[in-house]
Write a structure and sequence with these properties.
single chain, 87 residues, alpha+beta, 3 helices, 33% helix, globular
């Protein structure tokens, strides 16, 4: 799986504490090898994020991505459940 990162994702990533950044890196590595691993809770989204998918990073932290091609995606947003879905 080829992964790219939108500038918004990168900005949000840089604001996170180092410990959480390490968790994000770990989950992205897992995603690259097994996008539907149970730990990721990979699921499709509705509404504003129709045609996007979400994975769990840590407790309430989510990463939203969009598939571009069969083996390529771009992570677009990173944030808590309430930040992403209720703004």
């Amino acid at each position: 799986m080829k992964v790219a990162f939108h500038k918004n994702f990168s900005k949000q990533f840089k604001k996170l504490p180092a410990k959480i950044q390490a968790k994000v890196r770990s989950r992205i590595k897992l995603f690259i090898t097994d996008p539907f691993n149970v730990q990721l809770n990979n699921h499709s989204l509705k509404g504003t994020y129709l045609n996007y998918r979400s994975i769990n990073i840590a407790s309430d932290l989510r990463a939203i991505y969009k598939n571009l091609e069969d083996d390529e995606c771009i992570f677009v947003v990173l944030g808590s459940h309430s930040q992403l879905y209720y703004e």
